[in-house]
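Design job #97: recover the sequence.
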């Protein structure tokens, strides 16, 4: 399936939880954003999800991983860890936040606030 079609199906809620988790392994920003949005809205949290979101958090190069303006898929994945709000995801969120500079922290906090609204 083409990435944009897959992204639409994810957004429309046509995939089950396991299929959404598998989408975290697809290297396409729109697919990743859609999958992360569904994970956050469904409050999915397990070891695989956390591990994959941590890996995706490294994708913060705005030239390669730009989503919207200055936001990257890496910022988005860190924000998701904070928004899921389970003890294990919160721990990784706090760990990743301590390693960010102030600029990146502000971006992530803004995204978390948007995800929570």
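Job complete. Output follows.
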């Amino acid at each position: 399936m083409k990435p944009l079609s897959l992204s639409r199906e994810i957004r429309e809620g046509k995939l089950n939880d396991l299929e959404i988790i598998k989408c975290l392994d697809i290297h396409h920003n729109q697919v990743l954003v859609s999958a992360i949005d569904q994970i956050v809205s469904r409050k999915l949290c397990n070891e695989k999800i956390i591990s994959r979101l941590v890996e995706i958090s490294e994708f913060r190069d705005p030239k390669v991983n730009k989503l919207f303006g200055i936001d990257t898929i890496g910022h988005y994945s860190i924000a998701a860890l904070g928004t899921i709000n389970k003890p294990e995801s919160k721990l990784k969120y706090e760990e990743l936040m301590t390693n960010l500079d102030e600029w990146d922290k502000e971006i992530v906090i803004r995204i978390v606030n948007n995800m929570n609204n």
